[in-house]
Amino acid sequence: MTHAPNSQMSAEMRLGDFLAAYLQRIGVTRIFGIPGDLVLGLFERFAQGRELDVVTLSHEPSVGFAADGYARTTRRLGVVCVTYGAGGHNTVNPVAGAYAERVPLLLISGGPGEAETRIAGVHHQAKHIEGQLHIFEQITCAAHLVRHPERAAEEIHEVVRTIIDESRPGYLEIHRDLVDMRIPVPEHIREWDGVWPRPASDSRRLSEAVAEAVERLRAAKNPVLFAGVDLFREHSEATFLELAEKLGVPVVTTMLAKGVFPMSHPLHMGVHIGPFSPERIDRRVREADLVLALGTQLTDINLGAARPQVPRERSIWATPDYVNISFHSYAEVRLADFVEALSRQSLPRFDEKVMYCDNLDRRAAAGASADSPLTINEMLIELNEFLAAHDTYNVLAESGDMVFGGLELRLHGGLYLAQGYYASMGFGVPAALGAEIGSGRRTLALSGDGAFQMTGSEISHAPRLGLKPIVVLVNNAGWGIFRPVAQRQDLLELPVWPYAELAEAWGGQGHRAHNRLELREALLAADASDRFAIVECVTQRDDLSPLSRRYIEASVARADEKLD
Q1: What distances in angstroms separate CA 143 from CA 21, 96, 290, 558, one per listed residue?
Q2: Average pLDDT for the chain
Q3: Are the CB atoms for 475 and 445 separated by under 8 Å?
Q4: CA distance 367 to 11
Q5: How does pLDDT run across 383-415, given as a tens digit for each residue?
Q6: pLDDT tens, residue by residue, 133-191
Q7: Which of 162, 200, 280, 539 stands the most exposed, by the fewest C-beta atoms within 10 Å?
Q8: Separation between Cα atoms, residue 180 and residue 184, nearest integer Å
Q9: Contact 72, 103 (CB under 8 A)
Q10: 310-314 — which CB contacts under 8 Å span 24+ positions?
Q11: pTM to 2 decimals?
């Protein structure tokens, strides 16, 4: 058995050295963090060699979002290291988002030494010493304060194993007086190859689930396939593609899973978002006599804030851990095993002709003159033309209006990422940096001005990190997504920032587009540059993406109905 360089372990090691070696053993090559006094010892351990690249930004929330973008893109563990209290509490929001969206992150926090805590209150402490631990217990799958050196290696191993098993964030708190403490390392960890075995399905239940699914497919006349985000998480998107091509039926994705199925594939019909789907998609799903929803999640965003449109008796719904076929449930059947086994069966072929659908108004765009004010609808159409000719970009959509606007983009290569369920503004730019670090592909990020003012200045780190993302920024001078429903419009105002000029000041390229022609030229110039770019799209204050206005107004109307 061979191990990665510097992942070698001995029977007794300093805790900090063990943790660095352990992370390398499981394939970690990058750690995102910000140093602080109570975690400097760990930072020094991580940075003492060249095998662990420590990526720092300006603020802890951005570090968390960057690690999230890195983990989503690579499908590997994202690691964050911050100081205790003021640093740890700053990462609550990105960790909560990763928990909600099933992103595997390991948050490592420092902490005060035992002798310090006996004297008096320790700086960075809030209510009590273990308060930060208790906070993270609520938003992680495993949270542990390392107290006992003799069990430290096993406890670290168990936390990371739980993160990998559940694909959710976990938390380790290591106080600074333990970093140099010598700990025993059990033989099974020293000899372990760093790979966790994938949980297996119950073979009898898997066989019965597949047999019933085949029976339902053979009886169906007009089935449809739903591609869910868990196909990507379980590395099953290629097998799903084989299944779709074997059946020859329309494929729709959920909002969280856009990009799991190739958007340029002739069977791809578009994104289904409940009653807010394009009309053809809505009608086709409602008329289906069988819906195979593989790896999808029942969330309000995926369902369009409505009840499921497909009756259970007409559905096959496979999750990472079980399969429901109509009213029959098969526990201990893994999604990856089910999709693979189903794709190997003798299945009917439907050869349905499929038309891709979105919500864009191309007639309105065609009727606009070249110098007429830019609309978000036109911006998205222009971006689609750009992406059709430039298929190497990963695309990331910020929360807010752009999480809906991004649904209208059709990629011809690369990944599409968005925090579509937890939907925290400020995710976009730092996550784009993390995604570009992880994939090596240039990233195009969609952002509103409000979200950019939260964390967008982190793009100033792009030059020193060797990154060159393009941020397409909608400048409508406020929290535009809430304008259709807010009674106090003055509460939605934002200060006017010179976004294009800021890009130049931070070492990038800045562009400002007032119409579609200027946007086209700006995108081409940004693509040709070896620097990051901000393309500021100046739009009308009340303009929104085609889907946002419908979604926000309908959501408010439903809330008002419940109050009446």
Answers
A1: 21, 13, 42, 38
A2: 91
A3: no
A4: 73
A5: 999 999 999 999 999 999 999 999 999 999 899
A6: 999 999 999 999 999 999 999 999 999 999 999 999 999 999 989 999 999 999 999 99
A7: 200
A8: 13
A9: yes
A10: 310/285, 310/286, 314/288, 314/289, 314/290
A11: 0.93
